[in-house]
Amino acid sequence: MNDTRQSELAGTYTPPIVKGDPVEISTNVYVIPDHRVSLVPNIGIVVGDSASLVIDTGVGRRNGAYVLDQAKRLTGSRPLYLAVTQLDPGHGFGAQSFAGEATIIYSTSQRTRLRENAPSYAEPFIGLGTEVAAEFEGLELVDSTLTYSGSLEIDLGGTRAVLRDWGVSHTADDQTITIDSRVLFGGDLFQTRMFPIIPYVPPFDTHFDGDRWIDALDELVALDIPVVVPGHGEVTDTDQIRGVRDYLDYVRTASRRLRSEGVSLEEAGTRIEEYSMTQWPTWGAPRWVRSLVKAFYTGA
User: Which of 32, 48, 125, 260 lies at a CB distance of 3.0 to 4.6 Å from 43, suitable for a disulfide?
Assistant: First the structure.
């Protein structure tokens, strides 16, 4: 593995296994919490009168099968849909377990990522250790059975799910899902009590538009949805989205200002990291601060 990609993902990793029972966070909307385990997302299961929707799968066949079993336990014989908030290993690489069991929905951005470069995203994760690599055994990347552009509304029977493709923002194919304007699944556009994950590793991964990311968060804040499910961390509310938005804006402004003043990328990273850890002292995963600085300083 390239050393640059490895260093961006540096950290301590326990086995990325989805565990636990679904917790009801709103009427007929459930989350299997990530329990703050790296590489495990919050998983959503939405039960309608006539169909159900699963949101994200975890990585690999085993996690996907576990999520499918939990969904069937809640939904019985109702038809299933599967959507992923982004087509990367942690969020969408368990979709193979749903093939033939659910209508798999990708946005056009996600389908493009699948066909052009999704396999390359597995390599840096596999290199994180044997316990992580084990979840990639027997990995098969599956195509969608339904693809949409822009947005898609699904009637689950008494429950409405709206999928929206944001295109390039935090990464190449961010997607959000809102349920009846009462629950928002935001994927990695934001997290709770964590510095935002930013998979910007040039020249390999350069799908990043920081201005668009901030604009997306502004739009999500304006929706004022009462229950908010981040890609990682505890279920929260709109204030957390606003907090992440303000952090991104700070890093954007500081990175571009320091670059214009001739400050090196390394020094800019040091200054912004020190300030960020003081200003947001309860947030974890500070390794992502310098990644975001690099993205704004060099990429946008």
Answer: 32
Does the pTM of the predicted model rise above 0.90?
A: yes
State how beta strands 227-230 and 183-187 pair: parallel
As a whole number, mean pLDDT of residues 127-146 equals 90
Q: Please report where in the chains the tokens 């969904």 appear, as a residue.
A: 71
Looking at residue 5, its pLDDT comes to: 45
Band the pLDDT of 300: cuts 50, 70, 90. low
Phi-psi map region of 100: left, alpha, beta (phi>0 left; psi -120 to 50 alpha): left
Cβ neighbours, 10 Å, residue 216: 23
pLDDT digits (tens, 9 = 90+) for 162-193: 999 998 999 899 999 999 999 999 999 999 99
Q: Compute the distance between CA of residue 258 and CA of residue 255 in angstroms, rounded to an integer.
A: 5
Residue 132: per-residue pLDDT = 87
Quick check: 6 pLDDT over 70? no
